[in-house]
Amino acid sequence: MKYILILLVGILFFGCSNYDKVTKHNEKYYQTQLCNRLNGVMEYRLKDRTRVDCLTSEYAIEVDWAKKWAESIGQSLYYAQMTNKTPAVGLICGENDTRFLKRLKTVAKKEHIKIFVITK
Length: 120
Fold this sequence. Notes:
Layout: H1 2-12, H2 27-37, E1 41-45, E2 51-55, E3 59-65, H3 69-83, E4 86-93, H4 98-111, E5 114-119
Parallel strand pairs: 3-4, 4-5
Antiparallel strand pairs: 1-2, 2-3
């Protein structure tokens, strides 16, 4: 079941492209789309008043623009530790953002961070 869900999300959000073009939607839009598909809780508030963008039964997900890939790593790791979930990043990508995705993948592999690619 887990692999089917990951496959479906991958199909829905496959690819990574550019932040430089005009963005049609804000971050919250993409956050909502991903969280709804994963049946998660949006803006889950932690004891220290920080908020997980999307909390599912398995993942603590930070959703962010591709150019903020490095920030998303720290946030996802912190949220995962605070919730006892697996860290995850929902990376919002445009057509020229593959370099950011590649950087994230390098760290994610070592730190066991799940990546959800969200195509603009």
